Amino acid sequence: MKKRIALLGATGSIGKSSVDIILRDKENFEVVLLAARSSREKLDELSKLFPSAVCVLTEEKDGTQKLLSAISNVKADITINGISGAAGFQPSLAAIESGSHLALANKETIVMAGKLAVRLAKEKNVNIIPVDSEHSAIFHLLRYFAAHNTGAVSEIILTASGGPFRNLSLQEMEKVTAQDALSHPTWKMGQKITIDSASMANKGLEVIEANVFFNTPVDKIKTVIHPQSIVHSMIRLCNGAVYAQLSKPDMRNPIHDAIYYPETTPLTLEPLDFDSLTLEFSKPDTEKFPMLKLAYEAAKLGCLYPCAYNATNETAVTAFLERKIGFLDIPRITESVLQADWNCSKIDKDTVLNADKNARQRAFSYL
Ligand code: NDP
Ligand code: MG
């Protein structure tokens, strides 16, 4: 029987890579839902490729509600969530509630309320399989080594490209424009995540994501700059051995691995060529990239701090893209919002959505 796929964020960068992977195996996959925000033309094109799919644009009247209803009606076998930002949170929960496995690129879901999503997935007996390349690497390393929850893993090491400003001074970074920040050296991605890569907020979000996904304390999650983006992440075992996952930077790899999980099936992409390969590693500079340090702090504090970190960053990134604030105002605003009290007695959908709204309002007041 064909696996029925819901593709959320179908018109974006993850969406495009997902379509490529699905079209390679039409015998085994069928797309039953396509969703985006406002890219009507692109969605129409996709619906020609997958004529039986329900199509939803959330920017249309009651679109978000329609999307949530469509997710629960189609009851896909697998939902690929490639929506950008906090807008992906409710669709992720709706997919899990519907009994669908979740191939999750939308890291914001886990940052906002990872424990809630993981708990719900357990209740519904569905898997959340990470698509973020680092977490995909760790997820599969852990399962191939059968190493999770055995005490064998002493450290998770996330690699980071370091973004386009890796070698700039703080003074130089003060003046960079949105256009400078949008030219990522190794990955071609949506605007929000590209800015996050330049500020290292992306790695910050990923530290929080790893903390929840792999139930690993933050002080056991390390980050290392690796400009070539070939090593996608590593695990260090208690005997000192370090295992890494390597491939060319191409999101089709983790998407493929997620939708075929738990099987390991062939994928023919251009292989990594070791004849001319240089791999460099260095320590990240958290003074120059305070978003990374702030994420570690938010992860340690837990509760709604990660959610506030995410909402503030998203608000500040939008303002930066609209040229309303400078690049270094992103960490300044985030630090200010995180000064508030984001403790909580419980985490459910409403407390998370309220904290998200509250943090955005606070962030606005600093713009
Ligand atoms: P893009 O900006 O390229 O695409 C975003 C997609 O989400 C578009 O289809 C967009 O629709 C849709 N979308 C945005 N807002 C809404 C909304 N409110 N309701 C429904 N759909 C919406 O982003 P990326 O593909 O780069 O990233 C998507 C997610 O994947 C992010 O969480 C990112 O962090 C994560 N990720 C991405 C990687 C990459 O290589 N791109 C790598 C690792 C993680 P429309 O076109 O209509 O605006
Ligand atoms: Mg990543």
Short description:
With 367 residues, this protein is α/β, with parallel strands linked by helices. It is 46% helix and 15% strand.
Provide tags for this entry:
about 375 residues, alpha/beta, Rossmann fold, Rna Polymerase Sigma Factor, Chain: A, four-stranded mixed sheet, 10 strands, about 45% helix, globular, binds NADPH dihydro-nicotinamide-adenine-dinucleotide phosphate
CATH C-level class of the largest domain is Alpha Beta
Question: Can you tell me the CATH superfamily of the largest domain?
Answer: NAD(P)-binding Rossmann-like Domain
Alpha carbon gap, first and last residue: 52 Å
- As a whole number of angstroms, the C-alpha radius of gyration is 20 Å
How does this structure look, described?
The chain has 367 residues and is an alpha/beta fold. The protein has three domains: 3-130, Rossmann fold, CATH 3.40.50; 135-248 and 281-292, no CATH class; 302-367, Rna Polymerase Sigma Factor, Chain: A, CATH 1.10.1740. It is built from 15 helices and ten strands. The chain has helices at residues 13-23, 40-49, 63-74, 89-97, 107-124, 133-144, 170-174, 178-181, 191-199, 201-213, 252-260, 290-301, 305-321, 329-338, 349-366, and strands at residues 3-8, 29-36, 54-57, 78-81, 101-104, 128-130, 153-160, 221-225, 231-237, 242-246. The strands form two sheets. Strands 3-2-1-4-5-6 form a six-stranded parallel beta sheet, sandwiched between helices. Strand 9 and strand 10 (242-246) form a beta hairpin. Helix 5 (107-124) packs antiparallel against helix 13, helix 12 runs parallel beside helix 14 and helix 13 packs across helix 15. The longest helix has 18 residues, at 107-124. It is globular and about 55 Å long. The mean pLDDT is 96. It binds NADPH dihydro-nicotinamide-adenine-dinucleotide phosphate and magnesium ion.
